[in-house]
C-alpha cells in the first residue's frame, strides 16, 4: 500500500515538473467581492503572465456561501456565463467554488440533490472545473449525520466523491476544514481527518493547504512533504500571504516570498488569495507569476548561493535597521529573487496608473469591519516575551521551553489589537447585508432585506497551557452615521438594475467596484479563511425578499464617510468626477520611486520594507539621542559632530516625510481613479502618521525638554522593545495579532499613552492632495495665530463682527496670547500652503502659569485695555476686559490629575478632522516629554461647538474641578 501511494505521489510530482502546475488566483477573501469587469481584467493579466487558474470563491458573495442553495437568476446567469467564457478566451481554467459547510446536512439526500443541481446549473454555463470549500466551519456533525457517518471527514469525503462522480470527474478542488498544520488535530501526521481525506477522497481531486499556519511566513519542504504523505497527493497551496481581510490598516504590496521555487516540483499548484482591493494586487499576482516560471525544469545552478533563490531564511536587518539582503549583481534567469521580482512588477505596474478609469462613490474599505478580539501571542522556542507588573518593557529569554502566563500574553495581544480602529463612529455589532457581484459589470449590489444567516458564536482560542477559552467573535459590525450631502462634487450617471426573474427590492442598493462604496458591515472575520463559524440559523432554500413587485427600480448610493456607509434607495448612482486639470496631472506624474516607496510602506505581513524600516529606525534614533540637543544648548556649542549628525538625520527624516507627501500628491493626480481609490486611504493614513513623527522631531530640535525625558517617552511595546520585532518577523504568530502593520508600529513610537483614539481618522470621501503641516510655533507666527483666534473665538466659529482698532486683538490677548508669550515651547501651529489655519498651546502647570500671567502678562493687558474701553461694546469684549482687571479674584482650575492647561482652535475651513487629532497629539507628546500626563481645557458652559470639539479629541468633563460658568474637560495621556 505504501509503495502504491509513493508511486502516485511521484507521478503527481512528475506532472508538476512537466508543466501540469496550477498557478493562479483564488478570490477567497471576506468582504466586498470583485466585480465582473475586474475579474475579466484579471484574466487578461493572468494570460499575459503565464498563469492558468482562477477560483471563484468570494466568501460574502450572495450565493457562494450564505445562500449556497439558491439557483442563479437569468441576469446572474448571464454575468457568470460571461465570466466563464472570458476565462476560456484567455486559456484560464475557471473553478467555480461553493462553501456549503456552514449548514449542510451531509446525510440528507435533498441537500445532496440541491448541491448537485446548483453545480449542474453552473456546468450549463460552460464551467468545467469545480471546488467544494469546507474551511472556517465548526467541525461538528448534526445528529442526523452522526447516525450515518462515523467521522466528520467521512461525511465530507462521501458528498465530495458523489458530486465529483456526478459531474463526470471534472477538474476538482477541495478545501478541507483542517487546512493548515496549526488546525490539524492533534497534528498533521496523526490527524484522523486528514488521513481519511488522503485514503478515501478520489485520487484525482486536488486538496488545498495554506501551509504551517493560516498565513504562513514560509513554506518549508518538510511541511509540504509531511502533508503530501498524509494526503497521498501533492497539495495545491491556497496562499494567504497577501490577504488583508483581517486588518483594515494593512494592504500588502511586497513580493511573493518565503517560498523557494524548489517547491514547485513538490506541489500540485499555488493560488494566491490576495488583498480585498483588486487594484492593490498587481504586485502580489505579478511576482507569483515570476516565481512560478523559475526552476520549472527542476534545474538549479548550484554554483550560485542557494539561499538567494530559496528565500526561506528570515530576512534580517543591518545595524542601521535596513534590510540586509539586496539583489545580486548576476542572477541566473531561472533563479527567483523577491526584490528583483518586485522591481520588475513595479516597472510593469507604473503604466496602469496612466490608464483612464473612473471611480464610483466615496472612498471606503472593502474589508469588513472587524470586532477587535485579542489573540494570545504564543512565544516561539527562541523568543520568550514576558510581561511583569510594573514594567513597560519586554524581555527576551533563551529558554528552550518558555513558560508564559496566559494573562500576560493576553495583555500583550491587547496592545497589538487596539491600535487599528478604523473610524470613530459607533460600531453596532450585528449581521450585515448580503452582497451580489453578479448583477452588474461595475458594481456590487447589497440587499439589506435578506437576513444574513451567519451569526456570532463563541470560538475556542487555545492558550499556552492547553486550556480553551471562548471569546465571542462578532461576525458583523454595522457602522452607521448620519447622512451627509455631497460636498460640491459633481455627479453624473444613472444605472438601473434589472433582475431576470423578479424586481430588485427597494432595499437592494448598489455598491461600488472599488473603494468607492464598501460594505464594512458584511460578514466579518478576524482572519482570512477563518472565524466565520457555524450559524445559529440557516437560510431556507426558498427565502425571498418582502418586495415581489415587477416594477424596475432605479438604484443608487448615497454615501457617508469612509470606513462607514449608509446606502439610500431610490436615488441615482453617481460617479465621482474630479476637477483636476491636465496640467496638474502632467506636473504630478507618478514615478517608479513613488511606487517603490509605496510598496516599502505596505510590504508583507511579517516584514516591513526597507524604507519603512528606515523610518522606524530614524525616528527612534532621533528620539533616543535628543539629549545631544539639550547638551549642546547648555554648553552653547553647536559645532560638535554629534549635534551635526543629529540635525543631519533630522533633515533626512524631513526628506522622507516630504517623499511621502509627494507620493500622495502624485497618486492623487493619476488618471486611474479606480486604482487610486483602492490605495488612497492607506497612503493618506500613513502620510498623516509620518508627518506627525516629523512634527515631533522638529519640536525636539528646539531642546525644550529635561534630561529625564527618556523615562517619560520610552514607549510601551514598540518595534524596539525586546522581543517585539523578533516575534513580528518570525512568523510564529499569525499576523492579525500585530494589527496595524507599519502604520501602527510608527504610531506606537509617539510618546502618548492611551492615545489610540487620536489615531482614529475618517478618510476623506474623495481624494485630496491638500497637505497640512504641523510645526512648533515661532515668534513670527503671532499675527497669524492671533488672526485665527479672533476668527474662531465665538464658540469655535468665525465672528465677522468688526471691532474698534484698539480692540481688534482683545479676544486673542485673553485666550492665546498668554500661552504663546509665556510658553512658546508648548505651542504648535498648522499650516496650509504656508498660511496658518490652526494652533494648539499648553502650559505644563496651570497653577504656575497663573502666577506668571499675574506678573508678566496681566499688567500689560490692563494698560492696553483700560476699563473705559468696555463701554458701548459687546458683552464678550466687556467680559475680556473684566477678566484682565479682575484676574486676581478669578477662581481657576487647580487639578492634581490634569495639571496642564491647553487651548486649541482651527479655522472652520479645515474639513479634515484628522488635523486636530495630530495637532493635539504633538502637544500632548511635548507635555509628556516634560513629565506631565494630564491636561484640561476650560470652556464656556454655553459653547457647545468647542465642547463637541474637545469631546472628539478624547476629552471628558471633569466635574470635580468645576468652575462657575465654565465646563472643564480633561484627558490623560
- The number of E-state strands comes to 25
- Share of β-strand residues: 5-15%
C-alpha-based Rg, rounded: 30 Å
Weakly predicted, low-confidence segments: 9-18, 296-324, 372-412, 415-431, 455-526, 531-573
Q: What gross morphology would you assign?
A: elongated
What share of the residues lie within helices?
25-40%
Please describe the biggest sheet, giving its number of strands, its sense, and whether it closes into a barrel: 8 strands, parallel, barrel
Structural class: alpha/beta
Q: How is the largest sheet built, in terms of strand order? A: 1-2-3-4-5-6-7-8
Mean pLDDT: 78
End-to-end Cα distance: 67 Å
Q: Helical region count?
A: 29
EC number: 3.2.1.169
Catalytic activity: 3-O-(N-acetyl-beta-D-glucosaminyl)-L-threonyl-[protein] + H2O = L-threonyl-[protein] + N-acetyl-D-glucosamine; 3-O-(N-acetyl-beta-D-glucosaminyl)-L-seryl-[protein] + H2O = N-acetyl-D-glucosamine + L-seryl-[protein]
GO molecular function: [protein]-3-O-(N-acetyl-D-glucosaminyl)-L-serine/L-threonine O-N-acetyl-alpha-D-glucosaminase activity; beta-N-acetylglucosaminidase activity
Domain GH84: 21-296
Give a short summary of the structure.
The chain has 973 residues and is of the alpha/beta class. 35% of the residues lie in helices and 12% in strands. The strands form six sheets. Strands 1-2-3-4-5-6-7-8 form an eight-stranded parallel β-barrel.
Question: What do you see in this structure?
Answer:
This protein is α/β, with parallel strands linked by helices. The chain has an eight-stranded parallel barrel. A hairpin with a 7-residue loop joins β11 and β12. α6 (152-166) packs parallel to α7 (192-200), α14 packs across α17 (641-668) and α15 (610-624) runs parallel beside α18. Residues 9-18, 296-324, 372-412, 415-431, 455-526 and 531-573 have low confidence and may be disordered.
Amino acid at each position: 500500500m505504501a509503495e502504491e501511494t509513493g508511486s502516485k505521489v511521484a507521478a503527481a510530482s512528475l506532472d508538476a515538473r512537466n508543466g501540469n502546475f496550477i498557478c493562479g488566483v483564488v478570490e477567497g477573501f471576506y468582504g466586498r467581492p470583485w466585480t465582473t469587469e475586474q475579474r475579466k481584467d484579471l484574466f487578461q493579466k493572468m494570460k499575459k503572465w503565464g498563469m492558468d487558474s482562477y477560483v471563484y470563491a468570494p466568501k460574502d458573495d450572495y450565493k457562494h456561501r450564505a445562500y449556497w442553495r439558491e439557483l442563479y437568476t437569468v441576469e446572474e446567469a448571464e454575468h457568470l456565463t460571461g465570466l466563464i467564457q472570458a476565462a476560456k478566451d484567455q486559456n484560464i481554467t475557471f473553478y467555480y467554488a461553493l462553501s456549503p459547510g456552514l449548514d449542510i446536512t451531509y446525510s440528507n439526500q435533498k441537500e445532496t440533490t440541491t448541491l448537485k443541481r446548483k453545480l449542474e446549473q453552473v456546468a450549463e454555463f460552460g464551467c468545467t472545473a469545480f471546488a467544494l470549500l469546507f474551511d472556517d466551519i465548526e467541525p461538528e456533525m448534526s445528529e442526523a449525520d452522526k447516525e450515518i457517518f462515523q467521522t466528520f471527514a467521512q461525511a465530507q469525503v462521501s458528498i465530495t466523491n458523489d458530486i465529483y462522480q456526478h459531474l463526470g470527474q471534472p477538474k476538482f478542488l477541495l478545501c478541507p476544514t483542517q487546512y493548515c498544520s496549526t488546525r490539524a488535530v492533534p497534528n498533521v501526521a496523526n490527524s484522523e481527518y486528514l488521513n481519511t481525506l488522503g485514503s478515501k477522497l478520489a485520487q484525482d481531486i486536488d486538496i488545498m493547504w495554506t501551509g504551517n499556519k493560516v498565513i504562513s511566513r514560509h513554506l518549508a519542504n518538510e511541511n509540504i512533504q509531511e502533508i503530501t504523505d498524509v494526503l497521498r497527493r501533492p497539495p495545491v497551496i491556497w496562499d494567504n500571504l497577501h490577504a488583508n481581510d483581517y486588518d483594515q490598516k494593512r494592504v500588502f504590496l511586497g513580493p511573493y516570498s518565503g517560498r523557494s521555487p524548489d517547491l514547485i516540483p513538490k506541489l500540485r499548484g499555488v493560488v494566491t488569495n490576495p488583498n480585498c482591493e483588486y487594484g492593490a494586487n498587481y504586485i502580489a499576482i505579478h511576482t507569483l507569476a515570476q516565481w512560478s516560471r523559475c526552476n520549472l525544469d527542476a534545474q538549479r545552478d548550484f554554483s550560485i548561493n542557494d539561499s538567494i533563490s530559496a528565500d526561506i531564511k528570515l530576512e534580517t536587518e543591518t545595524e542601521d535597521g535596513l534590510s540586509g539582503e539586496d539583489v545580486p549583481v548576476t542572477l541566473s534567469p531561472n533563479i527567483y529573487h523577491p526584490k528583483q521580482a518586485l522591481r520588475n512588477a513595479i516597472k510593469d505596474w507604473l503604466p496602469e496608473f496612466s490608464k483612464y478609469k473612473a471611480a464610483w462613490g466615496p472612498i471606503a474599505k472593502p474589508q469588513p469591519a472587524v470586532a477587535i478580539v485579542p489573540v494570545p501571542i504564543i512565544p516561539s522556542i527562541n523568543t520568550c516575551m514576558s510581561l511583569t507588573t510594573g514594567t513597560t518593557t519586554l524581555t527576551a529569554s533563551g529558554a528552550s521551553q518558555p513558560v508564559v502566563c496566559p494573562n500576560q500574553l493576553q495583555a500583550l495581544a491587547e496592545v497589538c489589537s487596539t491600535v487599528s480602529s478604523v473610524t470613530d463612529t459607533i460600531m453596532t455589532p450585528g449581521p450585515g447585508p448580503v452582497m451580489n457581484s453578479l448583477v452588474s459589470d461595475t458594481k456590487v449590489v447589497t440587499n439589506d432585506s435578506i437576513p444574513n444567516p451567519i451569526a456570532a458564536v463563541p470560538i475556542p482560542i487555545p492558550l499556552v497551557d492547553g486550556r480553551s477559552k471562548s471569546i465571542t467573535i462578532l461576525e458583523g459590525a454595522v457602522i452607521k452615521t448620519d447622512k451627509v450631502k455631497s460636498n460640491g462634487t459633481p455627479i453624473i450617471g444613472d444605472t438601473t438594475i434589472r433582475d431576470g426573474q423578479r424586481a430588485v427590492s427597494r432595499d437592494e442598493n448598489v455598491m461600488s467596484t472599488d473603494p468607492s462604496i464598501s460594505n464594512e458591515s458584511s460578514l466579518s472575520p478576524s482572519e482570512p479563511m477563518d472565524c466565520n463559524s457555524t450559524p445559529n440559523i440557516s437560510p431556507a432554500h426558498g427565502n425571498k425578499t418582502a418586495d415581489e413587485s415587477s416594477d424596475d427600480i432605479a438604484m443608487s448610493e448615497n454615501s457617508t464617510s469612509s470606513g462607514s456607509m449608509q446606502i439610500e434607495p431610490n436615488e441615482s448612482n453617481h460617479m465621482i468626477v474630479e476637477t483636476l486639470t491636465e496640467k496638474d496631472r502632467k506636473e504630478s506624474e507618478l514615478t517608479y520611486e513613488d511606487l517603490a516607496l509605496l510598496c516599502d510602506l505596505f510590504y508583507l505581513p511579517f516584514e516591513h520594507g526597507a524604507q519603512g524600516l528606515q523610518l522606524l529606525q530614524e525616528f527612534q534614533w532621533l528620539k533616543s539621542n535628543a539629549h545631544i540637543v539639550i547638551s549642546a544648548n547648555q554648553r552653547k556649542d553647536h559645532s560638535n559632530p554629534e549635534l551635526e549628525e543629529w540635525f543631519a538625520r533630522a533633515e533626512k527624516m524631513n526628506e522622507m516625510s516630504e517623499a511621502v507627501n509627494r507620493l500622495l500628491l502624485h497618486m492623487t493626480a493619476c488618471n486611474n481613479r479606480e486604482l487610486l481609490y483602492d490605495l488612497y486611504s492607506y497612503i493618506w493614513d500613513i502620510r498623516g502618521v509620518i508627518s506627525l513623527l516629523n512634527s515631533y522631531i522638529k519640536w525636539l530640535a528646539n531642546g525644550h525638554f529635561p534630561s529625564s525625558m527618556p523615562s517619560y517617552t520610552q514607549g510601551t511595546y514598540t518595534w524596539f522593545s525586546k522581543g517585539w520585532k523578533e516575534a513580528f518577523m518570525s512568523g510564529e504568530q499569525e499576523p492579525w495579532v500585530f494589527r496595524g502593520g507599519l502604520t501602527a508600529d510608527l504610531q506606537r513610537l509617539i510618546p502618548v499613552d492611551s492615545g489610540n483614539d487620536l489615531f482614529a481618522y475618517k478618510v476623506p470621501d474623495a481624494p485630496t492632495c491638500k497637505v497640512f503641516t504641523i510645526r512648533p510655533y515661532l515668534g513670527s507666527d503671532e499675527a497669524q495665530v492671533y488672526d485665527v483666534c479672533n476668527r474662531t473665538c465665538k464658540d469655535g466659529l468665525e465672528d465677522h463682527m468688526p471691532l474698534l482698532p484698539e480692540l481688534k486683538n482683545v479676544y486673542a490677548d485673553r485666550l492665546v496670547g498668554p500661552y504663546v508669550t509665556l510658553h512658546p515651547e508648548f505651542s504648535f501651529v498648522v499650516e496650509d500652503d504656508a498660511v496658518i489655519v490652526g494652533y494648539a498651546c499648553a502650559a505644563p502647570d496651570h497653577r504656575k502659569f497663573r502666577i506668571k500671567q499675574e506678573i508678566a502678562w496681566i499688567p500689560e493687558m490692563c494698560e492696553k485695555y483700560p476699563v473705559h474701553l468696555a463701554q458701548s461694546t459687546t458683552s464678550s469684549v466687556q467680559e475680556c476686559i473684566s477678566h484682565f482687571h479682575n484676574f486676581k479674584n478669578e477662581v481657576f482650575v487647580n487639578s492634581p490629575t490634569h495639571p496642564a492647561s491647553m487651548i486649541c482652535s482651527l479655522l472652520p475651513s479645515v474639513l479634515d478632522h484628522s488635523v486636530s487629532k495630530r495637532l493635539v497629539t504633538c502637544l500632548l507628546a511635548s507635555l509628556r516629554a516634560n513629565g506631565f500626563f494630564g491636561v484640561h481645557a476650560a470652556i464656556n458652559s454655553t459653547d457647545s461647538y468647542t465642547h463637541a470639539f474637545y469631546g472628539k479629541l478624547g476629552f471628558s468633563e471633569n466635574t470635580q474641578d468645576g468652575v462657575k460658568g465654565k465646563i472643564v474637560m480633561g484627558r490623560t495621556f
